[in-house]
Write a structure and sequence with these properties.
- By secondary structure, the protein is an all-alpha fold.
- The protein has one domain.
- Helix content is 64%, strand content 0%.
- It contains four helices and no strands.
- Helix 2 packs across helix 3.
Length: 73
């Protein structure tokens, strides 16, 4: 990653979880539907991002989702 990308990522990581979820969802919307190597290729991941963007009360934590995705591969 470039220095600018690292700086931007570090700034985003300082935001609240809710704001990071919104940014992640918006970034995923800008990518091709089938970007190679993307976690979004997993429908579970995409469903969870959409759920988190709309209803945070029903969402699992990022750590739980990450662990579930790692176990499913």
């Amino acid at each position: 990653m470039s220095q600018t990308t690292d700086e931007l990522l570090n700034a985003v990581l300082q935001l609240s979880e809710e704001d990071r979820i919104k940014i992640a969802g918006r970034l995923l919307q800008t990518l091709p539907e089938r970007a190679p190597g993307l976690l979004a290729d997993d429908p579970t991941f995409e469903d969870e991002v959409r759920k988190r963007m709309g209803d945070r009360d029903g969402a699992v934590s990022w750590e739980q989702l990450r662990d579930e995705l790692r176990q499913s591969k």
